[in-house]
Specification:
binds glycinamide ribonucleotide, Rossmann fold, seven-stranded mixed beta sheet, alpha/beta
Length: 194
């Protein structure tokens, strides 16, 4: 069974959707640990409640290279084959990405390559787009620039506000992420670069 590690920084609702899919067998994978760079991330308590091992990465106390060394160490000890970023708000170093080439997946709340960065939903909202969405992609050495695995469009309707748009985006994320991972692990889905 494919072993995955999930990295979070906050609420962990994407981790929860993936974790549920693992627990009820829709996603044939083992979620071997959930780790956060933010010691008080509420997603950690959620992961614990779901029965997954949790770990804190020492980014705040010891910086990025110690944080990444900790991820490496944990992946080796838990034998994680894939690193799944689910609202992990740190930029991974090019060296780290190279050493886990095509083994790191991210979800981003916009239709990349539009609106990369920390606030994909807010940036799209302020730009006044009528269609935005969600992207799942492999992580490369750039920011939100890796090969796209899957996307789902979300319409901005008259009457929407930031809060309702956020809700729709998150709903789309929770439906798309585990399915994309299932396709990736079973070999039925691969990134296309043309
Ligand atoms: C999600 O919307 C995810 O797409 C976004 O952070 C949120 C985390 O929510 N990630 C990024 O913006 C990465 N650039 P969650 O903690 O509830 O899963």
């Amino acid at each position: 069974m494919t072993k995955i590690a999930v990295l979070i920084s906050g609420r962990g609702t994407n981790m929860k959707a993936i974790g549920r899919a693992v627990l009820d067998g829709r996603l044939k994978a083992g979620l071997v640990f959930v780790a956060s760079d933010a010691p008080h991330a509420s997603g950690l308590a959620l992961a614990e409640k779901m029965g997954f091992p949790t770990e804190i990465l020492p980014y705040n106390s010891r910086g990025r290279s110690a944080g990444e060394a900790a991820i490496d160490h944990l992946c080796r000890s838990y034998r994680a084959e894939w690193i799944i970023l689910a609202g992990f708000m740190r930029i991974l170093s090019p060296e780290f990405v190279r050493s886990h080439k095509n083994r790191i997946v991210n979800i981003h709340p916009s239709l990349l390559p539009s609106f990369p960065g920390k606030d994909g939903i807010g940036d799209a909202w302020r730009r006044g787009v009528k269609i935005t969405g969600v992207t799942v992609h492999l992580v490369d050495e750039g920011v939100d620039s890796g090969p796209i695995l899957a996307q789902k469009a979300v319409s901005v309707r008259p009457g929407d506000d930031m809060a309702s748009l956020e809700k729709k985006i998150h709903r789309a994320e929770h439906a798309l992420y585990w399915k994309t991972l299932a396709g990736l692990f079973s070999g039925t889905l691969s990134p296309e670069r043309r």
